[in-house]
Amino acid sequence: MDGATWQFSQAHSITSVSLHGRMTVRMVKETNTSVFVSGSDAASNDPGLLWQDSWHYIRNPVYQLVLFPHWFLAGIFAAFAALPMFRWQFSLCTLLIVTTLVAVGLGWIVYAIR
Question: Which of 3, 27, 49, 73 could form a disulfide with 64 if both were Cys (CB 3.0 to 4.6 A apart)?
Fold first, then answer.
């Protein structure tokens, strides 16, 4: 099991753990993170969640948990690696639209965190 934790405020943190061929991302909303001893508690209590090749989303008052297979991350990284092979010519209007969409997405993330 490999993992990393990012504490971005006193009461909020994100933990990413690789467990049995799946990625587990936990978003904790409280400072009491003793809910998580090791790995994914929700997944550890249900062995079916660990070995299925599917997506799961678990939400309770303390944390949100997302489980997804490793191939999804591999596909995203492969898509980003392939982007430079395409020659795109875009206008200033396209650039402004994309910038607006990115700003809306980031605003949505900040709203979801608070």
Answer: 27
Q: Report how far apart, in Å, the C-alpha atoms of 74 and of each of 23, 24, 79 are.
A: 11, 15, 9
- H-helix or E-strand spanning residue 97: helix 92-113
Q: What is the largest CA-CA distance in the chain?
A: 52
Place of tokens 């492969």: 78
pTM for this model (two decimals) = 0.51
Q: What is the pLDDT of residues 46-93, one digit of tens each?
A: 545 555 567 788 888 878 888 888 888 888 999 989 888 887 777 899
Domains in the chain: boundaries? 2-86
Q: What angle do CA 53, 54, 60 make, to 5 degrees?
A: 130
Question: How many CB atoms lie under 10 A from the CB of residue 80?
Answer: 9
